[in-house]
Amino acid sequence: MSGVPTASAALERDWRTPLELTVLGAIWGCSFLFMRVAVPAFGPYALVEVRLLLGALVLLPFLWQARDRFPARRWLWLAPIGVINSAIPFVLFAWAAQRAPAAIGAICNAMTVLFAALIAFLFFGEKIGMRRAIALLVGFAGVVVLATAKVSGLSIGAAVVAGAVAALLYGLGVNLVKRHMTGLPPAASAGATLGCAAVALLPMALTHWPTTPIPTLSWACAVALGVVCTGLAFLMFYRLIARIGPARASTVTYLVPMFGALFAWLFLGEAVTWAMVVAGVLILGSVAASQKR
């Protein structure tokens, strides 16, 4: 009889994990759609400030509950990690969303896993291995294909570079979190870094706040971006990491570009070009290869 609950729990995990990974991939895919819709009215700085502030507020109860584990010395790392891992990449992706289809940012975002491996190798002494080295080269080839492409006759190179730099900063942030925030409650840590990022970006947001009224749809997208795609998505992601480990949880990276392109096509009528498909295959294929043991 003792084996029945165990088997039942395993069966529940079997169907919950792919479902939650799919939902999280769809949520993060939506974030590029929301940025594409809201950024023309807000501008990158104001939009990201709203995103950071709302995301931090969602996670604030977890930070408050674990406040005793965040002494003053911890904030010396939390603040720069928040800027590197949230404020600057969010602004870069929002800036790119003004200049290129939503799918472009979603595809560039997939490079995070590869950049995390590269930075760990270059600066933290981790081995990279031949498979990951080849995967990095293939992934960068995908970025080159994307950067040299044109969509509707317009060059998207600058947007691709912005998205790639954002992914690079995410990769750096992953390594800093691993080395300086281990042992802290993940949701509380995310709330702390988002809050620090919001404070750091506030002067730029105030000086660049729109002078014209912001449409209701843009506000709705900004709120969804902060509450759902940042606050709630972080909670889902860290819960997945706790249950299935970081390696399996990171497979959500494969789903984000697919959902980003799908939603942009469905709701904005943005075309999916062959250059996007080829670049996506190269980048996601390289990420998948780099994750194999």
Topology of this structure?
Elements: H1 3-42, H2 44-65, H3 72-97, H4 102-109, H5 112-124, H6 129-147, E1 150-151, E2 154-155, H7 157-180, H8 186-207, H9 216-244, H10 246-249, H11 255-268, H12 274-291
Antiparallel strand pairs: 1-2
Question: How would you describe this protein?
Answer:
The protein is an all-alpha fold. The protein is built from twelve helices and two strands; from the N terminus they run H-H-H-H-H-H-E-E-H-H-H-H-H-H. The chain has a two-stranded antiparallel sheet with strand order 1-2. Helix 4 runs parallel beside helix 7 and helix 5 (112-124) crosses helix 6. The relative contact order is 0.22. It is found in: Membrane.
Q: What can be said about this structure in brief?
A:
Keywords: Membrane, Transmembrane, Transmembrane helix. The protein has helices at residues 3-42, 44-65, 72-97, 102-109, 112-124, 129-147, 157-180, 186-207, 216-244, 246-249, 255-268, 274-291; strands at residues 150-151, 154-155.
